[in-house]
Structures are given as structure tokens and as C-alpha cells.
Amino acid sequence: MQSSNRGKLFIIGIGPGNTDFMIKRASDAIRESDIIIGNDFYLNLIKPLVEDKEVIYSSMGKEVERARRCIELAEKKKVAMISGGDPGIYGMAGIVIEIIKKDSSGVDYEVIPGVTAATAAASRTGSPLSGDYTTISLSDLLTPLEVIEKRLDLAFQMGVPVVLYNPKSNGRPHNLAMALGTALKYKSGDTPVAVVKNSHREGEEIRYYTLAELFEDDGFVDMRSVVTIGGEESEFIGEGEDISGIITPRGYDRKYVY
Ligand code: SAH
């Protein structure tokens, strides 16, 4: 069934896991679309919504091709392009909008936000990001390694929590050790760290480390994990085997007595 003659491109973030963690506008837009484009992994997470749709499976690493194809299809049809987390955070929105601008395409598009990995993981680990924080991706596919190193060096001097996306993959197993080594230049070895693997998905696992411990052995971390390194005021909730999260006070204690 075709919904109307006018095309539209929805660039949709599905959040960290299955449809329970997606916003309503995202599921409505998928229902409204004629064609769904995304990779197996994400389409599997939202299977009930795409079962009776025309689906185009795309593989990782062909983002530019995928973006152009979606823009062309969206001239006449309603197309849903699926991204994990938020599409504007290390996702597909950037490249799609770059191409729309470059090609002066008049395509109608809408970016629909999703819960990004940093805040999804934070919700599982207390309140590690209560105030300012920063995120850095360790993927050097699109950003040169020297630029990542420079940003890390500056980020760890800010004293705020730092969330590392794309912390490790087969192609770049050493970037995480480099990042943790940089953190140790400025931060105490006792700094609390949370690793959240597969947040809000099957296989979810959470482990806590001190910065020095994770630097010693980061074997648990993989590309489906985010690593949250506490800021100068962050503390563990609980001790030893009973650690249940990280709290970064926002500063209420400077203003109120409680
Ligand atoms: N657009 C996505 C990020 C894509 S980059 C977002 O907003 O979340 C891919 C990286 O995101 C992964 O290497 C991992 O570090 C992180 N990531 C994405 N989903 C995750 C999840 N459910 N649990 C843990 N990390 C996740």
C-alpha cells in the first residue's frame, strides 16, 4: 500500500534496544513508510514494525551509497532510514543531510531522535553524567587518530565525565589503551569507570572498574560497549563487589544542606 504520492525521508533513531525504548514518533514514521532501509542488526531489533514492509538491507561501511539511494527513493516514496541510538550522534543523519545539501536536493526530510548510548548506559549505572560531560568516539575510520588523541587530551583536562563510543574493534584494538593512558595523565587511578555492553538489549552486561584497573586489562570491552570515565567529583555507589553505579554530584551540596 502506498500512503501518498509525495515522498519523504525519515531519518530515525531507534534508541539502544528494542521498540520499548523508541519514541512514538519513530514507530509512527516507520508504520507510515513504504520502504525501510537499515542493517540486519537494527532491523532485527524492531522486527514487529517492519515485518510487512519492503525492506532494503544495507551493510556497514557503505553509508554514502546508502544515503544517496535513500534520497533518490524518497523523491516519490516514504522512506525510513534506521539508525541505532540517535541518528544525529555518530549516526546517519549527518551524511544524509550533507548529501542533500551538496546535491541541492529538495527532498522533504525529518530527523527523529532516539536515546543515545551515553544516556542509555547512564540510566543503567546510577547518575554518572548529572551535569556537563563529553563524548569522544575512538573510531579512526573518519577522524584521523592524531585528532582523536588531541581531543582526548583536552577532554580529560576538563574534569567532567567522558563517554567513549566505538571504544574497540578488531581493526583498532589499541585505541582504548591509548585513551585510558591519556586519562591517567590527568586523573587519579581511582577514578570510577563503568563499561556497559549491549545496553537495553539482549546480552546486556555492566562492569565497574577503577581507571587503573581498566588500563591494566580492558579485555571485556568490545564494539558493543560504551565506556564512561568519571569526572573529578564522580564516586562509586557502594563498594567492592557491591558497586551498583556511579554518582556525579551536580553541585546541590554547594547550595543546600541535605
Ligand atoms: N548513533 C548511535 C551511536 C553509533 S556509534 C547512538 O546514538 O547511540 C556505535 C557505538 O555506539 C558502539 O561502538 C558503542 O560504543 C555505542 N553503542 C551503540 N548502542 C549501544 C548499546 N545499546 N549499548 C552499548 N553501546 C552502544
Automatic annotation (TrEMBL):
Pathway: Cofactor biosynthesis; adenosylcobalamin biosynthesis. Pfam families: TP_methylase (PF00590). Residues 8-214 form the Tetrapyrrole methylase domain. GO terms for molecular function: precorrin-3B C17-methyltransferase activity. Keywords: Cobalamin biosynthesis, Methyltransferase, S-adenosyl-L-methionine, Transferase. The keyword Methyltransferase applies. NCBIfam families: cobJ_cbiH (TIGR01466). InterPro entries: 4pyrrol_Mease, 4pyrrol_Methylase_sf, 4pyrrole_Mease_sub1, 4pyrrole_Mease_sub2, Cbl_synth_CobJ/CibH_dom, Precorrin_MeTrfase. SUPFAM superfamilies: Tetrapyrrole methylase. PANTHER family: COBALT-FACTOR III C(17)-METHYLTRANSFERASE-RELATED. It comes from Methanoplanus endosymbiosus. The keyword Nucleotide-binding does not apply. CDD domains: Precorrin_3B_C17_MT. Its EC number is 2.1.1.131. This is Precorrin-3B C(17)-methyltransferase.
